[in-house]
Amino acid sequence: MPERLRPIEQMLELNEDDGASTEHLDSQVQKAQEQLLHLKRQQEQIEKQKRELEELSRRQEELERGRAEMTDRLTRSLVVLEREAYEAQTKMEQLRTTRESFGQHLELLEAIDPRTWNPTDLNKELSRALSVVDDARTEYSQQRSRLEATADEHEKVPLPETGSGYESSGGGSEHSFAQWLQIGFAVTLPLIIFGVIALIVLLYMNGGSR
To answer: How far is CA 73 from CA 1, 39, 68, 157, 208, in A?
Structure first.
């Protein structure tokens, strides 16, 4: 009988060993799962850091590209603006000078009054007045040419043409019909007055002789 019971005991011992092996295997599986979970978390963390580094790298490249682009644009724009400012300042100075010159010549022209001339110095006064007109015309032509030479097509100052409304005379001077009429009246006025006085005196003498 004891010999028959021995296989049963052996089977019980085997069952106990199998239980221990199963527990050990389950423990190993659990450890492996924990390690896999830990590795997965590490992988997620690494991928997150990778995405952050890629984003930082992209933003840094964007910064360098944008800084280089705007530095170039601003540098070239400053050069253009400085040139435009200098040209505008030069033009303003030229306009100021031209305005002052035109104002001075206009005052001289408006001061010409043939009615105040001395009949004995009529030729001298007339020559002086014509000289004032010629000087004004020369200055006008020169300043107008300078403005046209320095201005762009859309920035030209619309000054009248120098020959507009005038006719050339033999001496190179140009006068309107009204100006010639005033000059002619100023020249002949003393003769007319002298003729009227002489006529009155003649008529008086003829009347007295009768």
So the answer is: 108, 50, 9, 32, 101
* Cβ–Cβ under 8 Å, residues 173 and 133: yes
What are the residue ranges of helices labelled H in 111-176?
122-150
Rounded to the nearest 5°, which phi and psi values hold at 87? -65, -40
| 109-152 residue pLDDT tens | 999 888 888 888 888 888 898 999 999 999 988 888 888 877 66
Q: Which regions in the chain score pLDDT beneath 70? A: 1-20, 151-191, 194-196, 198, 201, 204, 206-210
Please provide the size of the chain in residues.
210
Q: How far apart are CA 24 and CA 82, in angstroms?
A: 85
Taking a C-beta distance cutoff of 8 angstroms, is the pair 126, 183 a contact? yes
Q: Which residues pair with 175 in a beta bridge?
A: 167
- CA angle, 40 then 41 then 46, to 5°: 95
Residue 173 has φ and ψ, to the nearest 5°, of -90, 150
pLDDT value, residue 63: 93
Domain ranges of the chain: 1-80, 121-195
